[in-house]
Amino acid sequence: MKLVECNDRSDGCKWECRKQLNSKRHKVELSIRKGSWFERSNLTLEEILKLTYWWCRGVEQEMMRFEVDVSGNTVVDWDSFCREICEVYYLECEEKIGGPNKRVQIDESKFGKRKYHRGHRVEGQWVFGGIEEESRKSFMFAVDDRSEATLLPIIETFIEKGTTIISDCWKAYTNLEKHGYKHSLVNHSKEFVNKDGDHTNKIEGHWRQAKAKLPAFGTQVYVFVIFS
């Protein structure tokens, strides 16, 4: 199988295999998109690369439409498509973060807004996440509540045993050491950095970045799962 130029395809080239079996010549041709995540797209390769590049850079949809010169509907569809691809990868990925001699900060945050713009009650969706300090690899997961029964299975799914986990004093984290983790607590009612120099600044910064990319109004629960 080799890559050859052609004039009968919009991509300008194709995969081609010529071989002889039982004294008969066989010729097999495949699109260069075969097996890719954009195999069925009707966009040109140039449009696909440009849209994906600007999407990864977090550019607003109107600017993407202008830069790539496609319709607004195309940009909206591609945005949703890229999110779905990331969601599938994220849910199927078995790679864990952390491990011996590595440190992971964990926290929960509510994505939403104060009801009627007053008081401390926040309407929205709880999201649990963690970030590895050295590599900044991370995960986020929408959760129904912040109980130990809910958070511990997620921790065991995404964080290697032997990891030093850094968290606040939320009660759901009380038994982490019983499950094979080292645990460093930061009591935010007294300090932002504990006596060992540990803090949760990275995961809190991660929340700020995540919330900045979500719409201010009308965000549905499924958005948090996809965003993770």
TrEMBL record:
Q: What is this protein called?
A: Uncharacterized protein
- Species in which this protein is naturally found: Paramuricea clavata
Question: What domain of life is recorded for the organism?
Answer: Eukaryota
- What are the leading ranks of the lineage? Eukaryota, Metazoa, Cnidaria, Anthozoa, Octocorallia
Q: Which InterPro entries match?
A: IS1016-like_transposase, Tnp_ISXO2-like
